[in-house]
Amino acid sequence: MAMKHSDLVAAVCCHAGALLTAPADDYIPTPIWFVHGTTDAAVLYNGTDSLGENGLNYKMPGAQVGYDYLSSINGCTVTNSASFVEGNIQYASNCTNNADVELMTLTGVGHSPYKGSDTSYDTTALAWEFCSSHEFFVEPVI
């Protein structure tokens, strides 16, 4: 959503996703938060570069590659990280348009990084806290 329609969203939060779309020519740096498990078998944490089930080449960047890329296009100049019991979180800040980027990595967690599923962390609440703390100051044109 942020890559193609950054003019419509204040922030984007994603569970177990991958960055598959290049930014639009008119991309506006957008705050992005995402969480990914290291043992996700559906969307591999380290990405993939292999043949898909239809025999076509398929490339999906990993979570770290996505974080690094988003931090770069958002113009972030400060990075920090913190470890916790189940993994770590990386923070990219001092970004254009206050478009911080955060990656929460959960060690040993699969494709359901939700509290009560694969982790004890309430990642839905964390996503809500991040996304709801941002405001879009221009009314979207639909």
Report on this model:
The protein has helices at 2-5, 63-73, 123-132; strands at 12-15, 32-37, 47-51, 57-61, 78-84, 87-93, 101-106. The protein is of the alpha/beta class and 142 residues long. The chain has a five-stranded mixed beta sheet, sandwiched between helices. Strands 3-4 form a two-stranded antiparallel sheet. Strand 3 and strand 4 (57-61) form a beta hairpin. It is globular, with a radius of gyration of 15 Å. The two termini are 14 Å apart. The model has no long low-confidence stretch (mean pLDDT 90).
CATH architecture of the domain at 28-48 and 62-131: 3-Layer(aba) Sandwich
What is the overall number of helices?
Answer: 3
Task: Spell the H/E element sequence.
Answer: HEEEEHEEEH
The main sheet orders its strands as 1-2-7-6-5
Shape: globular
CATH topology of the domain at 28-48 and 62-131: Rossmann fold
Give a quick precis of the structure.
This protein has 142 residues and is an alpha/beta fold.
Please specify the SSE layout and strand pairing.
Blueprint: H1 2-5, E1 12-15, E2 32-37, E3 47-51, E4 57-61, H2 63-73, E5 78-84, E6 87-93, E7 101-106, H3 123-132
Parallel strand pairs: 1-2, 2-7
Antiparallel strand pairs: 3-4, 5-6, 6-7
Task: Record keyword descriptors for this entry.
single chain, 142 residues, alpha/beta, Rossmann fold, two-stranded antiparallel ribbon, 3 helices, globular
